[in-house]
TrEMBL record:
The keyword Transferase applies. It comes from Populus euphratica (Euphrates poplar). This is Ribokinase-like. InterPro entries: Carboh/pur_kinase_PfkB_CS, Ketohexokinase-related, PfkB_dom, Ribo/fructo_kinase, Ribokinase-like. Residues 160-390, 438-495 form the Carbohydrate kinase PfkB domain. The gene is LOC105125854. GO terms for molecular function: kinase activity. Keywords: Kinase, Transferase. Belongs to the carbohydrate kinase PfkB family. SUPFAM superfamilies: Ribokinase-like.
Amino acid sequence: MDSHWFSALFDGDYDSVMNNIVDYGNYGNSSVNNGDCRSFIVTIYLSNHSSDNDDDNNDDDHSYEEGWMQRYFRVFTLNLKTNMGYRGYDNVMNNVADYVNYGNSFVNNGDCNGNHSSDNDDDDHSDEEVLIMTTTTIQMKKCIYLNVSDYFWQLGCGAAGVDFLAAVASFPKPDDKIRSTSLKVQGGGNAGNALTCAARLGLNPRLISKVADDIQGKGVLEELESDGVDTSFFVVSKEGNSPSTYIIVDNETKTRTCIHTPGYPPMIPDELSRSSLLSALDGARLVYLDGRLHETALVIAEETARKNIPILIDVERKREGLDDLLPLASYAVCSSKFPLVWTEAPSISSALVSMLLRLPKIKFVIVTLGEDGCVMLERSTEEAPASEEKDVDSLLESLKQRKDDNVAIPTCYASPLTKIRANGIGTVNGRLLVGTAEKIPPPELVDTTGAGDAFIGAVLYAICANMPPEKMLPFASQVAAAGCRALGARTGLPHRTDPRLAAFLH
């Protein structure tokens, strides 16, 4: 079975797939047998929220996700019917439940890499049947987090430009003349970096931004396209200059200093027609805004909200127009300073409670803390168990005390669902989570430029892959750490197949 098809048509977790596998498989079989086998492409593209649109006489009502899963099995069924006729299609489908249950047991009792142990079943399958069953199951199990849809897009709006990075032994004093130890010129900008990261992880992002028709602008577009970011919705100005940033990386203190030159002329909403906006949003699963280009971003956010597409906002600092964007957000990833400044709360943890109370639409807020990891407050729509409220500051300290300083890889510590109180602010139902950062050996730490962008790119992937927060936070921290091992925001960004990510994707 081709895992590309599976990942393109299903979004969910493996256990949910396997729990409903018999229903899905039988649906695919009857749907094909009672329908036009050549129509499945139309079905894939045009199907809306799933209803009982088959001719199998079943009064079923499947969810949107189940609808995609059923259509996947329709494709899988067609593949079987056309490619496995030599073994008898009916024999295959008559045993579909047995095949998948057998394959599931076979893989779960093995190592998922082909070295399988006995499943203790008293069945007698041919070698060909075992191959179908185990291959199908392995690819299902592996692709849940490794692949995300080619038919869903992620739309971003924000900064994209050129970074000129010079590494120096130590930051110069006034009137000093020094030499760089290395130099790199590459694409930059928060949105450009984050979506490059997301594309390398397997997403299919589109970016709305603006550059000039100059050498730098051409380089920005070419580099993004080479990484799989769709730039067809960029505005290219015939005059002016593309955005650029000079970055001095201090090898001694492991810090960087940025000198930014904005693009000119700035982007205005009229440069993005309504038809282009609707085209950009077509098929979008998630929209990401980095807080720049605020007028255009607001137009996009309002249309996105009307379509009930979730929005993630990168909240680095207070910017013009940000107060209009935040109420439309489903998710926010913040710098360590922003929550305190925006809410005037006495601590980061209490500021998170304040943000969830002030932004009733938001599902979670993450605060990134550099080498100290991150903190996340997740809202729950479920009622917390009948217990006393937990003070958010005390809860955060209790989670921090659970950290194991001997563990170098990123980990996560989560509170149970509870009522979380911030004194003088209010109470929310939810969970508090603490994520640790990778302990990077000093010789391996090269440049922290773009670490936050990499973190956000990984969060975008995690949301689309339906990762639980306990997986998402360590995964995003690992991706960010990988990017810190090379000069520049993009040089060290990992691809989905990077061995360092394997443990977080299974």
